[in-house]
Amino acid sequence: MNSTTSPKISKEEFEQLLFSAQQLEQERATYQQQIDLLNNYYNDVTMAEQTLIELKHCKKAHNTLVPIGAGIFVYANIDENENVLVSVGAKVHIKKPLDEALANLRKRKEDIENQLISTKARYNEVLERLRGIEAILQSVG
User: Fold this and answer.
1) What is the CA angle 110-85-112, rounded to 5?
2) Out of 57, 62, 79, 80, which residue is the most buried by the measure of CB atoms under 10 Å away?
3) pLDDT at 8 over 90
């Protein structure tokens, strides 16, 4: 008897494995999208944090460039650097001390990091299961 013969599975088992692989691939893609979104959000929060740190050390009446999107900047004069406006949702903004806003950003960053860790762990679990099924399919295919 040849030891290199591939294991035998029924057609139904093969189809079930294929179906499971397709489901896992969709799940993997969903987790990858979530990771990408979280990374983008993390980068935005980090950029805002860096900007607030720089603003904290600016002198009043400091002239600067402010990005308005799509690679366009406008000149602005910093008249106050002790308070900032923070969005609280539904187009509502409140005035907060810069240090409080900075603390909130740091907390948000920590939350995003935790979400990334959790999402990456689930992604890796799905990927491992998917690779296992693919190995079985290749061995019988």
Assistant:
1) 15
2) 62
3) no
Residue 58 bridge partners (DSSP): none
105-120 pLDDT, tens digit each: 999 999 999 999 999 9
Q: pLDDT at residue 64 above 60?
A: yes
Give, in degrees to the nearest 5, the angle at Cα 88 between 87 and 90.
95
CA angle, corner 16, sides to 10 and 22, nearest 5? 140
Write the secondary structure of 29-75 as one string of H (helix), E (strand) and C (coil).
Answer: HHHHHHHHHHHHHHHHHHHHHHHHHHHHCCCCCEEEEEEEECCEEEE
Contacts (Cβ under 8 Å, ≥6 apart) of 116: 35, 38, 39, 42
User: Which two tokens mark 37?
Assistant: 């979104």
To the nearest 10 degrees (0 to 180), the angle between helices 11-56 and 98-140 is 160
CA distance 137 to 18: 8
Write the class of the CATH domain 11-140: mainly alpha
Taking the domains of the chain in order of start, what are their residue ranges? Answer: 11-140
